[in-house]
Amino acid sequence: MKTDDRKIRILGKGVTALALKDKFPNATLYDDSDFDKYDLTSNEITVVSPGIPPYNHMVLNSKNLLSDYDLFSDDMPLSIWISGTNGKTTTTQMTQHLLENYNSVYGGNIGTPLSHLDTNVNIWILETSSFTLHYTNKAKPNLYILLPISEDHITWHGNFYEYKHAKLKPLDFMEENEIAIVPFEFKDYPTKALKIVYRNSDDLCEYFSIDKSKIKFKEPFLLDALLAMASQKIFFDKIDYEKINSFIIDKHKVEEFTDNKNRLWIDDSKATNVDATINALVPYKDYEIHIILGGDDKGANLEPLFENIKELNINVYSIGTNSEKIVDYCSKFNIKVEKCDFLSIAVDKINKKLDENNIAILSPAAASLDQFKSYAHRGNEFKKLVSTLS
């Protein structure tokens, strides 16, 4: 990998920062423990790792702040940025799956850090977080795909308005020969780019002449697939049903499995916010549902979830640090609930009630780090607990 001898400083010492250090050996890395060595008057280019919030004291005492996207904006090939609250990882992976034969690579918020991507390929496909977008003030995509937005990362951004504003920032910098696919609610947001708006999957099918009956995925993955297919249609005027249907979805995303009594369980541990859980339940709305909710909700407003599920035949089992809050919401909306606090207790309680005509789902609408190492750890523990049921 070609290195750069420019002197910059980097806030953070995580994956993004260490990848940048590989590219810029002369860079200096800082975290909160180094604040006494930090030059508050420096005019050096300062790259902020996406995990560091805007209220961090080093951020507040820095000039010339950039994201890693800004740092590589002049070297970036044709790029597709994909963001939104839910589905951006799957959409990014699906887009790479469809475009890999066109000399594309993917990374950013998943997989390869941006600074390690090959600048000599034809296309960069970047999963793009609101954290990165907050600090991005120069770089822009050629195609911006924005999935629906709902409350998330409120603690980091301060409020929903700032979170939403970060997601819309690329539209501020895009030019007339570029394209943005965005939810209908942003139809009036000003941008020079050609703006394609959608309310749902049917809108995308109509606009891009896609026959959804030829696609194997159901919601919420149908929307992800259609947005990925839109990329191929825009750049290469091709719709490839066979290729998209060969894509395999990651574990812990509405992953169905059965126990030794042939009862259906669903691992949706990746659902770390309200919107993800609402979407996950759509295919099962006609079943009696046993759902495990709870964890670290990151300060998000949970009420829309309970507004949405109150008419379903649903039983809630609350776990995690917001377990009591979930019980309170269920009481408010007259939803059956059992306070479990821990995943093992919830699985045990569901086991005593579940039959072959019901479904049990872990779709927490919350992050996992209050009790687990990651959402994957939470999902694996869930499946392990179910596998040992008698």
Topology, please?
Elements: E1 9-11, H1 15-23, E2 28-30, E3 46-48, H2 57-60, E4 65-66, H3 68-71, E5 78-83, H4 88-99, E6 104-108, E7 123-127, H5 130-135, E8 143-146, H6 154-157, H7 160-173, E9 179-183, E10 194-198, H8 201-208, H9 221-236, H10 241-245, E11 255-258, E12 264-267, H11 274-281, E13 288-293, H12 303-309, E14 314-319, H13 323-332, E15 336-341, H14 343-351, E16 358-362, H15 375-387
Parallel strand pairs: 1-2, 1-3, 3-4, 5-7, 5-8, 6-7, 8-9, 9-10, 12-16, 13-14, 13-16, 14-15
Antiparallel strand pairs: 11-12
Helix pairs in contact: 4-9, 8-9, 11-12, 14-15
Architecture overview:
With 390 residues, the protein is of the alpha/beta class. The protein folds into three domains: 9-66, no CATH class; 70-245, Mur-like, catalytic domain (UDP-N-acetylmuramoyl-L-alanine:D-glutamate ligase, 3-Layer(aba) Sandwich), CATH 3.40.1190.10; 255-387, Protein-Tyrosine Phosphatase, Chain A, CATH 3.90.190. Helix content is 33%, strand content 18%. It has helices at residues 15-23, 57-60, 68-71, 88-99, 130-135, 154-157, 160-173, 201-208, 221-236, 241-245, 274-281, 303-309, 323-332, 343-351, 375-387, and strands at residues 9-11, 28-30, 46-48, 65-66, 78-83, 104-108, 123-127, 143-146, 179-183, 194-198, 255-258, 264-267, 288-293, 314-319, 336-341, 358-362. It has a six-stranded parallel sheet, sandwiched between helices. It has a six-stranded mixed sheet with strand order 11-12-16-13-14-15. It is globular. The chain starts with 8 loop residues before the first strand and ends with a helix.
